[in-house]
Amino acid sequence: MAEPDYIESDNPDLIKPHKIINPVKTSRNHQDLHRELLMNQKRGLSPQNKPELQKVMEKRKRDQIIKQQKEAAEEKKTDFEKELLKRHQMLEEKETVKQKSEEEQENKPEFLKVKGNLRRMNQEISEANNS
């Protein structure tokens, strides 16, 4: 980083800037903590690093607790709520199938739509003639 030009000038009227003191770094607690961390690092002790096995076990325990909570919430649902949920899922599935079929119809080229209409018309005419 380039230093400003006014620092090099010898003008006595200018106030020369100086670094602002950080009150956190000058505090005794911060210095003690920093010294302790440096000593632990030299010894090879890291406060944040846990053994991999311990991390895995904690994760499994957390997952198990979450699973138990979900199961407890499922058990609290009444039969009526369960039936409503089933019907809601069925309706959503039907809507997605319907939307897919509509999108497919919209994406078809025009000549395929006309061909389908002609087939239907021919079938209707043949049915009318037969009856």
UniProtKB/TrEMBL annotation:
Pfam families: DUF1151
Biased composition (Basic and acidic residues): 91-113
Entry keywords, A to Z: Coiled coil
Domain of life: Eukaryota
InterPro entries per the UniProt record, alphabetical: FAM107 (IPR009533)
Spans annotated as Disordered: 91-131
PANTHER family with a match to the protein in the record: DOWN REGULATED IN RENAL CARCINOMA 1/TU3A, PROTEIN FAM107B
Descriptive protein name: Protein FAM107B
